[in-house]
Amino acid sequence: MESDTWALLQSLMSLRKTTPPEFPNPRELLATNPYTPPATLAQSIMHSSPLLSELVVVREWLHDSAPSPTMLDPGATNGYWRFTRNAVLQGKRTGRTGAGLVGELDPDAVNRDGIEEKGLAPDDAVYDKAVLQALYAHVRAGQLEDAVELCRKANQPWRATSIRGALLFQWRAIANEPREVDAMDDEDAEDCQQWRGNVRRRLWKKVCSQAALSTTLSPTERALYAALAPTTQTSISLKAVARTWEDHLWALVSLACEERLSVGLASIERDCFWENGLGALEGGAAVLAPREADDEAEEEWENEVVHALEALSNIQVSEGAPADNPYHVSQLHIILDRTDALLEAFASGLQEGTYVSSPEYTTMTRFFAHLCLFLQMIDMPVSPFATQIILEAYLQVLEAAGQRELIAMYAGALGDNAVERYALFLTSLELSADIHERRLALTRARDHGLDIERVAIVTAERTIEKAFTILPQTRGPLPFVYGLEPPPTEPEWLLVRSIEWTTFLEATYDTALEQTNVILRYFLGHGRVQVAKSLLEMLPPELGTLREPEEEAAEYMHYCQFFGVWDALARVGECEALEQPQMNKDTRAAWLDDYKTLIEQAREQVEKLLTTDWLVSDADARGPGAKRHRDLVRIRQIYVPELILRLHAILVSSRSRIPENLKHALALVNIVADSRYRLYDDFSGQVGRRLGDYLGAVRQAILASLEGGGSDPFRILTV
Questions:
Q1: From CA 47, how far away is CA 694, in angstroms rounded?
Q2: Do 344 and 18 meet the contact criterion of CB atoms below 8 Å apart?
Q3: What's the maximum distance between 2 C-alpha atoms anywhere in the chain?
Q4: Residue 280: what pLDDT?
């Protein structure tokens, strides 16, 4: 049904979107040539009526989508009523006629009035019934020539003649039809001289109508004649055999086309030789009727057809899908040229959740999404609001089905909302996609016309926002920093990997720089040094070369400096752990040299960090950058005391191997006490980070300086 709907849509839209060819009015044709054949006049009538042209297209579509008549082929026969003929001949020879059997063999013998009800031999009756059903199926499929051929094979030439009577009379040799002479081959030239069709079609139609209303004929035969020449009176016979919704639509469309054609030909029959004979010539040139009268008749007919089509939305069917099937509803709206109302109704149902539980939800959402895109492509009016709702629903279907490669293509059709919607999809990937899948998904945005830079930025922003809604806020007591941290949680890892989106493209590095600082502030503010370090290791080295924005670049460099210091202190601890009691003299000397070098490097780096306004913000604590200012102050309160205490502990603990380190430990006090750096302000009232804790450690260092003897605790500073 979906493919049939697309075929209907393509056929009708091709007609509606193309400029119709110039075709003279029927009266103009007759005024020029009263011998114009009815077939040519019928073409003119069709071209003069847009609705009739569309109905003809719909009828052809119904013919193409009709069930194949080959399934009903009755097969070949050995003669005309062979079994009945043999029985009749046998009866004449023996003088005993079979009971209930016809006595004549003419086609009307079964239905002739004035005799008792008689019929054919059972085998012939069954074959005749199969022939009628196959003939009706051929007519239903628009295959008149095949029906004629079937009649000939069944040895019923009178039926072939009856069926061919449906063809309008045509004689191209006397018709004013434009054709290219050079393009005509010998076969076309010979065909042009031949006439075909029914010269007395009006009389034939009257006879067909009487046959369709005859109660002596079977329902199938009555429907056959009603289908060949549909009228308002015979439509009851046609509808009697209509089983499906498509059958009812075909009956209605066939009737509407035939009625409009009959009215059109009747209005000009006085001026047509083939309808009025010599009277058309004696009356002189055809008189052009007022256009207003034709327009009024056309409008009245159109209103009747529209009302009849609308009634199909509630018709009951005995077979196939009901009238309220989504495809039948769509087909009816397409025929009535109400696709905008169709899409709005479906979008409204999506909003109300009407279709969510339907087993056809996925299929119908896909169909309507493609319908929106198709109508947009051919510049047909489509409600932007309805389109957005339908495409959004289909995107959710694709996401649920895991068809990630299609998301960008359909999101790109959302117009102004395309970037935001595709970014929402990329955000929904969370941790399910690795870095290569993320890069590929982002690249698809460019392939389908989206601003890839905006998509990357918005995706990163939405991912960060999503992670922050799950993670605890940065507030409360300052955390303690442990050497062994627990592995990152899923929300923490989501926050770390959010930076991937803005590091795929060099054009978004400035945004990546800003977002990196935000993430680092969060992790360092929670004491998650190792998680923050893993983020830094994911970043491209080019990020460190950026100079704009200046404030963000400076903050990023401070973080790089911090992790350099942190690693230097860690290397000292690792080197210290390598000392073994069983070391020989040379090995110990080499180890001590490395140990001394690492401590010296760590001391210099820590002192440099402490004396260079590390993460000191000039922003107003109450202005727009208030949160950033608070976060930086919190980070300094966590790590400045931590670095001071750790460096002090390393220097004091290594004094037995490197005596001058005790001097460096006491010299560090001067840096902490220097009002230029105000490091004492970074000590808090929390246990382990109080200034008193550091002074207690300094006191122990001073006492350690007396271990070598003497009473001057500051003598070590002058040695």
A1: 99
A2: no
A3: 160
A4: 53
pLDDT tens for 231-243 read 888 888 888 888 8
* Identity at 389, one-letter amino acid code: I
More confident residue, 271 or 678: 678
Cβ neighbours of residue 693 under 8 Å, at least 6 residues apart?
Answer: 641, 645, 687
Least-confidence region, from 62-71, 503-512, 548-557, 618-627: 618-627
Residue 253 near residue 59 (C-beta atoms within 8 A): yes
Whose structure tokens read 């957005």? Answer: 388
DSSP β-bridge partners for residue 168: 198
> Six-digit token pair at 713?
């605790």
Mean pLDDT of the chain, nearest integer? 84
Task: Find out whether 84 and 105 touch, Cβ atoms under 8 Å.
Answer: yes
Place of tokens 């055809």: 286
Lowest mean pLDDT among 408-417, 433-442, 535-544, 687-696: 408-417
End-to-end CA distance of the chain: 98
The C-alpha R_g of the chain, in whole angstroms, comes to: 47
- Residue 560 has a pLDDT of 95
Any idea how long the chain is? 719
Does the structure show a pLDDT above 50 at 183?
Answer: no
pTM of the entire predicted model: 0.71
| CA dist., res. 369 & res. 586, Å (int) | 79
CA distance 257 to 229: 11
Pair of tokens at residue 310:
């609308």
Tokens of 681: 């302000």
Residue 137, Cβ density class (10 Å: 0-12 exposed, 13-18 middle, ≥19 buried): buried
Count of beta carbons in the 10 Å neighbourhood of residue 416: 8
Q: How far is Cα 54 from Cα 52, in angstroms, rounded to an integer?
A: 5
Cα–Cα distance, 323 to 315 (Å, whole number): 6
DSSP state of 476: S
How many Å apart are CA 138 and CA 220, to the nearest integer?
Answer: 13
CA quadruple 523, 529, 534, 537: dihedral, nearest 10 = 110
Kind and range of the H or E run holding 456: helix 452-470
Least confident of 65-79, 185-199, 288-302, 685-699: 185-199
**3-state secondary structure at position 198:** strand
DSSP letter at 397? H
DSSP state of 195: E
> Per-residue DSSP letters for 585-642?
HHHHHHHHHHHHHHHHHHHHHHHHHHTTTTT---S-TTSTTHHHHHHHHHHHHHHHHH
Instruction: Determine the Cα–Cα distance for residues 248 and 242; give it in Å rounded to an integer.
Output: 6
Cβ burial, residue 303 (10 Å; 0-12/13-18/19+): exposed
Torsion angle, alpha carbons of 279, 280, 282, 285, to 10? 160
Q: 138: which residues sit within 8 A by CB, 6+ positions away? A: 69, 144, 146, 147, 150
pLDDT 10s digits, 120-172: 777 778 888 888 889 989 988 888 888 888 888 888 888 888 888 888 878 77
Q: What does the alpha-carbon distance between residue 165 and residue 114 come to, in Å, rounded to a whole number?
A: 29
How many angstroms separate the CA atoms of 401 and 663, rounded? 69
